[in-house]
Amino acid sequence: MPSSRQRGFTLIELVAAFVIFAIGFGILLQILTVCLRTTTQSADYTRAALWAQSLLDVQGVGEPLQEGSDSGQFDDKYHWQLQVTKLPPPQEPQPAVAAAGNANAAGPNITTLGNNIDLYQLELVVSWGSFYLTHNASFVTLRAQDANAGNGNPGNGFVPGAPPARGRQ
User: How far apart are CA 1 and CA 24, in angstroms?
Assistant: First the structure.
């Protein structure tokens, strides 16, 4: 009598295969969730940087910069706060004093034209998120402006004798 033994999977083998599949699928879902969260955060930071660039590009154009702070909203999600600080002028170099017996020890005379440029630091903080989890992105830049821009001269930042500014207009 030939043996009629059938070959197949046992119930334990099927359960083990299903558990391995479920664990693998769960790990895959966790990886996809982290990827989606990272992509969303990256898009939010990119959008905040674009909003910041659009706001900082117009500072000092048309009107002279003024020290102080300002705030507002870009849309329902993104808020901003801008702090403008005037930086002190750099120290002018002092000419060296010549030695009593050597007239050339001091080197050439240094002449300065005076400081007719004001330097401003602009710090912009863009924030978004919920009440419980707020994200912030901080942007800091420097702007030079003609010191006489607020005294009846046009506040276009033009400095006589300076090379023309390049970039977006």
Answer: 45
DSSP per-residue letters across 3-41: --PPP---HHHHHHHHHHHHHHHHHHHHHHHHHHHHHHH
Q: Which domain holds residue 82?
A: 11-90+114-146
User: pLDDT, tens digit, for every residue of 99-129?
Assistant: 555 555 555 555 555 568 888 999 999 999 8
Domain of 72, CATH number, reads 3.30.1300
Domain-embedded: residue 47: yes
Q: Model pTM greater than 0.70?
A: no
Q: Is residue 53 situated within a structural domain?
A: yes
